[in-house]
Amino acid sequence: MSKRIYIIEDDENIREMVRMALTSFSYEVAAFDNAEEGLAAIYNSMPDMVIFDIMLPGMSGLDATKQLRDNPKTGRLPVILLTAKNTEIDKVAGLDCGADDYIAKPFSVMELAARIRALFRRVRKSAPQPAENIEISGLYINNNTREVTLNNIPLDLTYKEHELLSMLAKDRDRIIPREELLNRIWGYDFTGESRTLDMHIRALRHKLDDDAENSRYIKTVRNVGYRFIAK
């Protein structure tokens, strides 16, 4: 059975180019020009993947992706973001909202098709694991509701910050190499952009009120990776 992909893009030329290209690759494709219609279609008939443009009239692709991630029924739906922006901070913002991949315009349909195939392969390999809630040294991580509290005070974490903190806490008995964190949290090669990980670690430490030099939670292991040290 053909994979079904929804493309939400307000530029008619790009929308039609992507629709025709993906149809030629034997995907079943539906196209929408705004996030509200795209979300309604998703909730009515679940696709196998969604491609959002970030800059849309009305609701943005970022906000639409966050909405999907906050809904248990669509929380694991593969999402690719398209945008004209191509700076690292824009990529971080896109991935933080829960997107699985990010493609900057202009792009070739061959590149997009390759990213789609790669994402489908990752989805097949990463079967969902039972959620494990974690409570350590005043820190509580609820992996079902994605809520995190520190000494009973809620922490406002982004999607990727929650994923990173949860992974570190689950594997707290070992040092996790940088490459493994990047691969498991972001899911693809971040060569040349590994500062993304450092930015998220700094943000987590700030929200945990955790000092890098005298850490209570996240310890840097120089030239290797990070380790969760709270007992």
Task: Describe this structure as you would to a colleague.
The protein is α/β, with parallel strands linked by helices. Helices cover 40% and strands 21% of the residues. The protein is built from 8 helices and 12 strands. It has helices at residues 12-24, 35-44, 61-70, 88-96, 109-125, 159-170, 178-185, 195-207, and strands at residues 4-8, 28-32, 49-53, 79-83, 101-104, 134-136, 139-142, 147-150, 153-155, 176-177, 218-221, 225-228. A 5-stranded parallel β-sheet has the order 2-1-3-4-5, with helices on both faces. A 4-stranded antiparallel β-sheet has the order 6-7-8-9, covered by helices on one side. Helix 4 links the parallel strand 4 and strand 5 (101-104). Helix 6 (159-170) packs across helix 8 (195-207). The longest helix is centred in the middle third of the chain and has 17 residues, at 109-125. It is elongated, with a radius of gyration of 19 Å. The N and C termini lie far apart (48 Å).
Secondary-structure topology with pairs:
Layout: E1 4-8, H1 12-24, E2 28-32, H2 35-44, E3 49-53, H3 61-70, E4 79-83, H4 88-96, E5 101-104, H5 109-125, E6 134-136, E7 139-142, E8 147-150, E9 153-155, H6 159-170, E10 176-177, H7 178-185, H8 195-207, E11 218-221, E12 225-228
Parallel strand pairs: 1-2, 1-3, 3-4, 4-5
Antiparallel strand pairs: 6-7, 7-8, 8-9, 10-12, 11-12
Helix pairs in contact: 6-8
